[in-house]
Amino acid sequence: MHFHEKPNTYVTNVEIKVSDLQRSLTFYQEIIGFKILQQESHKATLTTDGETALLTIVQPEAVEEKRSMTTGLYHFALLLPTRRDLANVITHFHDKGVHLGASDHAVSEALYLNDPDHNGIEVYVDRDESEWTWHNDYVHMVTEPLNIRSILEEGDGNWNGLPAGTVMGHIHLSVSNLAEAEHFYTKGLGFEIVTRYGSQALFISTGRYHHHIGLNTWHSENAPKLSQNQVGLKTFSLRLDNEEQAATMKGNLRVMGAPVIEITGGFQTEDPAGNVVLLKF
Q1: Would you say residue 238 has pLDDT above 80?
Q2: Of 84, 131, 154, 249, which has the maximum CB count within 10 A?
Q3: 214: β partners
Q4: For 76-130, what is each residue's pLDDT tens digit?
Q5: Is 59 within 8 Å of 19 (Cβ atoms)?
């Protein structure tokens, strides 16, 4: 999991808006396997190790359903420590009757599902980086059927929620203009492109990870941004390495006209599609 350590820039927390906080808490505890780290009347922070906040769920006072296509969250992705953990998750989801998608991406093995508000979730495990294939600076990724039988052979049936070593592996965003998003994240925040899928999707990372952020316009080209009270993505947080890096990012963002707002422990900005990014030490 060194891809999710400094000096890399990686996702630490995702904050989503939901229509019913209690319903979502039940789902994220009983189905996904989180524990509550902190809870308020309209907000809860979730963890796997009792210390680290991975997911924050918020119920706006005047919550609105998302009735049309917008930019925002495509999915957030929970990275498990081992393939055995993924096997145990598959068994647990089967026991709960969860409807799943599943894919082998060559670099990883992944499950896909939605929460009660249709926020997308990926639960995955990486293959060892020695098994990844690189063509110069592009990593080889595919979308093929997942060999669930092979994974289940490694399971032990020991389901006690998400393991403590789970991290927020990446976030995948729906954007309105891919070229603008590429410019923002590469020139503004210093990410590198590691894979392209035609003219509608690209994947970016630091430290040669297969991706810390995915960007696509598959269902969101020229779409408006999510409104303040609509269910979906509220913010996501990226880990900063040092003050020099932060200063460089701020300078880049100001040159391109992106907002830079000082917050406790870092700063806040917004990508061209309206996705709010918190950059923190």
Answers
A1: yes
A2: 249
A3: 172, 203
A4: 999 999 999 999 999 999 999 999 999 999 999 999 999 999 999 999 999 999 9
A5: yes
Residue 67 has pLDDT above 80, yes or no: no
Average pLDDT over residues 210-226: 97
Q: What residue ranges define each of the domains in the chain, with the CATH number in brackets? A: 2-280 (3.10.180.10)
List beta partners, residue 39: 44
CA atoms within 13 Å, Cβ hemisphere of 231: 18
The residues, any chain, with a CB within 8 Å of residue 31's CB and separated by 6 or more, are 93, 96, 98
CA nearest 265: which of 248, 279, 249, 251? 279
Residue pointed to by tokens 């210390």 = 51
What is the rounded CA–CA span in Å between residue 157 and residue 138?
A: 37
Classify the phi-psi angles of 223: left when phi > 0, otherwise alpha if psi is within -120 to 50, otherwise beta: beta
What is the token pair recorded at 4?
A: 């999710």
**Amino acid, single-letter form, for residue 202:** L
- Residue ranges of alpha helices (H) inside 146-260 are 148-152, 178-183, 243-255
Torsional class of 33: left (φ above 0), alpha (ψ -120 to 50), beta (otherwise): left
Amino acid (1-letter code) at residue 278: L
Q: For residue 116, say if its preceding peptide bond is cis, omega within 30 degrees of 0.
A: no
Residue 167 confidence (pLDDT) above 80: yes
